[in-house]
Write the structure tokens for this entry.
Amino acid sequence: MKNTCPLLLALIVIGPMPVSPQTLREAANQRGVKIGAAIAPAHLGETEYAATAAREFNQVEPENAMKFGPIQPGPQTFNWAPADVVVAFAQQHGMAVRGHNLVWHRQNPGWITSGHFTADQLHSILQDHITKVVIHYHGQIYAWDVVNEAFNADGTLRSTIWADSPGIGMSGTAYIEQAFRWAHAADPKALLFYNDYDAEVMNAKSDSIYRMAKDFKARGVPLDGIGLQMHFKLDETRFASMEANIKRIAELGLQVQITELDVRIPVGPSGEASAADLRRQADVYRNAAEACLKFPQCTAIQTWGFTDKYSWIPHEDPGFGAGLEFDTNYRPKPAFYALLDALRTR
Ligand code: G3I
């Protein structure tokens, strides 16, 4: 070995250096967590969209295709095809699927919102919907957002067609509990989540969700986790409070998942953002991912889309956009590298 070069010697003695993961998916796999994105079946025919999704993520969730309106547009009509496309894509690429969502106040079909149904009728309609949708995807969806956004910012229950206007005939959080029981009966192995926004940190809304979760756990209601959406702006700095919230949920024996992460920034007329804002955006991504990864109970990080080419933000908040980790040409942004770095096993 006298004349062997030091690098070769190191290779013989300690073996080849492990290759650092280059994709989010590889990094998440090494770490044993899910990295996901909301996707739209209509874009899967676009080569770069599909290739990026399959390369970077080990989980997908349909952004709209499984919501009540899109999937049950008539009382006896189920439009399975678009959501089935997402599930087939995931299966073809070995990805897990999250289902979104079974009970929400938005994107309900006109036949329900204009139907003037009684509480008894709505009770049957919701039971039928949850049962049929969950059974259709039995064994194919590992986790469902069963109830989405049921609380107001002040911690009171939101008034919705399912809660109290007229509701399904159950007061307080009992209608939420009922939805979880129906979903569990339809697929006992699926993990069932309550999902909300602006409840990432300690505040009145997250306090109410925590109280409900504690009560559900104490009484054996089939709740498995809380989804923290994480639709953020650049001013998001409350990561210590976020960790405290994740910790208290985890201590109930529940999972936490980041379900809809994006960080909107000001954009010009053609969607362009400043380099400084893109760097600050990356910091928010890194801090959010690190807050999750500190806890083994935080099992998934998912972004709401993955390319700035298709994002809900400019439609709902004109003047803002560029919220995701890939730009409109599928080039990785600083936010991508921040996520990758946070995911890489240290
Ligand atoms: O599909 C119809 C199309 O047929 C019609 O011609 C067109 C005309 O406006 O609308 C299309 O539907 C739109 C749909 O997105 C699909 O693009 C709806 O109008 C539009 O309201 C809908 O927006 C979605 C929004 O939820 C609805 O509330 C966004 O894409 C979706 O990203 C957003 O997702 C929500 C999560 O589910 C829950 N958390 C918040 C998040 C962001 O708002």
Notes: The pocket of G3I is lined by residues 63-64, 106-107, 148, 197, 229, 260, 312 (CB under 6 Å). The chain has one domain: 6-344. The longest helix spans residues 275-293.
